[in-house]
Design brief:
- This protein has 655 residues and is an all-alpha fold.
- The chain is built from 36 helices and no strands.
- The chain has helices at residues 27-37, 41-52, 58-74, 80-90, 97-110, 114-121, 131-147, 151-159, 168-181, 185-195, 202-206, 208-215, 219-230, 235-251, 255-264, 274-286, 290-297, 306-321, 325-336, 342-359, 366-376, 383-396, 400-409, 416-432, 436-448, 453-469, 473-485, 498-508, 512-525, 530-546, 550-563, 568-581, 585-598, 605-618, 622-635, 642-654.
Length: 655
């Protein structure tokens, strides 16, 4: 709303006449005084503090404390008023007590901070003021009361200066205004008639009625009176009348009518306030002109009030309407951090949280934003939607434990598909961490909510994996086969290894007849996984070997040897043994000797030497047998075949 500008005149601070302190030989102190006069309060305060700390005289200490507090007031430092109170308490004999109160009061008054000014006016001892000082005191205290709505107190102080040469006209003006507010038009006119001839009141008198009706909420009347007054007004008056008419249309929600008048307002001293930009921007916003709305809202700088919060909120909405989501996120963040309008704060936070999920957030984690919203606004009607976003963000960030805790804590949570997914991924985490019992619980929970066939299949596969590592091989085999029977199984990443897993389950159950076919199926289907391919050949070879199918076993071992993978030495050893079982001892001996050359550091080397010695013995090649046993004894002096090798050597010596 429009208010009368402060017509009070006067200097910011009245500096007392020079005293002996100004002639004191304190260069730094005098420098601080000069800085203070030049309104360089921060620098002055620093030097006053320095002088105060250098054990100056009591008088200098007192004056420093006085000026330090004064600087703090002017710099809006925390507890500045306490510094002034401390000055009074610490230096009870200082002559500056009353001067301190009155100067601080005048300072706040000239800054337009009337409630603070009034607090300090109340501390002043009026009896110690000169006549001139008392006039200024009475008028400013009256105006401070006036600005605070204390009309009775304001009237009392204004009446004390109605005959003052300096303040009389101003006092009459405000007395007239207060009379008008009380609908006492007779008294109001008496006062206004006494000041209407003065130039400095001309502006206010020309739009007075329009302005008063605006303030009283008579917006249409304010528009009508303002329109009439516009023709006989000067440029300054027209500016104010544009504001009155524009804001009246704004309050009547006739935003299209408000825009041209608001646009023609020139501002106070040529500068718009944050409120002016907000009203103009909001009018564009309501008209759907979001680009112009953004332009105006963005001119609200350094704002920390309800106007700024509203502006940030509607700036966010305007950015959303123009698909500028990152800018919208920043605007909603600012609005959500202000507490002037709690409803706007909550709604801004909701938009900030939802946008964070949608486009990401460089300020904090997305789960952090969503969780903070739910914690701050547990009863928000959008709670379920935000919880779903939080769960999805947990899944995206792979915080499945957090997602699961949130879901199971919320009894009303209805997104069963999300629950199935979360329990599955949490199961994988627990499986990877080696907590197989808890992992099994998660996979079972996931299977129990068969919302997504693909996740049902995957959870079944990993249930089988968990049963396998828990040595429940029969259950694992059945579970793996159940997985293979799902139509969706083929589209999962686990499917490529299903034959391999089933083969191993049969292998662990010693069902060798069935093992080879599953490993062969895996070999036929998967070529790129060299590790499992190699292992499949080895297990096929073993199954054929224990089933006395030595030629197929040798064929499988040969494939493993060709891959040159892990356990190639084992395959070579098993292949050599297989030749013995098909009465090809010459080939067995050849392969065992080849093994010793090809795998000099193999863990099976002592087995090979012992087997080679035995084969030589069985083929009546005692010399070669003795030589081989001796080699084994020399290489493995503490080996497991030591005793047997000595015995075998003895037997060969006797032959």
């Amino acid at each position: 709303m429009v208010y009368f500008p402060n017509v009070v005149s006067g200097t910011l601070l009245r500096i007392s006449p020079k005293t002996e302190i100004y002639t004191h030989d304190l260069k730094e102190y005098n420098r601080a005084i000069e800085l203070y006069k030049e309104k360089q309060y921060q620098s002055a305060q620093i030097i006053f503090k320095k002088v105060s700390e250098e054990k100056a005289s009591d008088e200098v200490q007192s004056d420093c404390a006085y000026y330090i507090a004064n600087c703090a007031i002017r710099l809006n430092q925390p507890n500045a008023d306490l510094l002034m109170e401390k000055f009074v308490a610490d230096y009870p004999t200082s002559s500056k007590h009353n001067q301190a109160y009155i100067e601080v009061a005048h300072y706040y008054f000239d800054e337009g901070k009337f409630p603070q000014a009034l607090q300090w006016f109340e501390k002043v001892d009026e009896s110690n003021l000169t006549a001139g000082e008392r006039e200024r005191f009475n008028f400013q205290k009256g105006y401070a009361n006036f600005s605070g709505g204390k009309k009775k107190e304001a009237t009392s102080y204004f009446n004390k200066v109605v005959n003052s040469k300096e303040y009389g006209s101003q006092a009459k003006y405000y007395l007239g205004y207060m009379s008008y507010e009380k609908d006492d038009y007779k008294v109001a006119n008496e006062y206004f008639e006494q000041v209407e001839g003065e130039q400095k009141y001309k502006e206010k008198m020309s739009y007075y009625q329009a302005d008063m009706n605006f303030k009283l909420g008579n917006f249409q009347k304010a528009i009508d009176l303002g329109t009439v007054a516009m023709a006989k007004s000067d440029a300054m008056e027209k500016s104010e009348l544009n504001k009155i008419i524009g804001e009246s249309y704004f309050n009547l929600k006739q935003y299209d009518q408000a825009i041209p008048y608001l646009k023609n307002y020139k501002g106070k001293k040529g500068k718009w306030s944050n409120t002016d930009h907000y009203l103009f921007g909001y009018s564009y916003y309501k008209q759907g002109d979001f680009e112009n709305a953004i332009n105006q809202f963005n001119k609200i700088i350094n704002g920390n009030d309800g106007v700024a919060q509203n502006a940030y909120y509607h700036l966010g909405e305007s950015y959303l309407k123009t698909d500028k989501k990152q800018q919208a996120l920043n605007a909603f963040k600012n609005a959500s951090e202000m507490e002037f309008d709690l409803k706007i704060q909550e709604d801004a936070f909701l938009n900030y949280a939802k946008l964070s999920y949608e486009i990401g957030n460089s300020y904090q984690t997305i789960p952090g934003v969503l969780s903070a919203f739910l914690e701050k606004y547990p009863n928000n009607p959008n709670k379920l939607e935000v919880e779903n976003l939080l769960i999805n963000s947990f899944i995206t960030s792979k915080n499945y434990k957090g997602a699961l805790e949130l879901i199971e804590k919320n009894k009303n949570f209805s997104n069963k598909a999300a629950y199935q997914k979360v329990t599955f991924y949490r199961g994988l985490e627990l499986y990877t961490d080696g907590d197989f019992t808890e992992a099994m619980k998660m996979f079972k929970k996931s299977i129990a909510e068969p919302r997504d066939p693909k996740f049902t299949a995957r959870a079944t596969f990993w249930k089988g994996e968990t049963e396998y590592v828990l040595d429940n091989f029969a259950e694992a085999m059945l579970t793996f086969k159940q997985f293979a029977g799902f139509a969706e199984a083929k589209s999962t990443p686990e499917y490529k290894n299903i034959n391999y897993n089933i083969g191993y389950a049969h292998f662990k159950l010693k069902e060798y007849e069935q093992v080879a076919s599953y490993f062969q199926n895996h070999i036929d289907a998967v070529k790129e996984d060299k590790v499992r391919l190699n292992d499949s050949y080895l297990r096929m070879g073993d199954c054929y070997f224990v089933s006395a199918k030595y030629w197929p076993a040798m064929e499988a071992y040969n494939k493993a040897i060709e891959l040159k993978g892990v356990d190639a030495d084992y395959a070579a050893y098993q292949k050599a043994l297989s030749y013995g079982f098909v009465n090809r001892n010459d080939k067995k001996i050849e392969d065992l000797n080849t093994f010793l050359k090809s795998y000099p550091k193999s863990q099976y080397r002592d087995d090979v030497l012992f087997e080679l010695g035995n084969t030589y013995t069985n083929n009546n090649k005692s010399d070669l047998a003795l030589k081989t046993y001796d080699q084994l004894i020399n290489e493995y002096k503490n080996g497991s075949f030591l005793c047997e090798s000595h015995i075998a050597s003895g037997i060969n010596l006797l032959q």
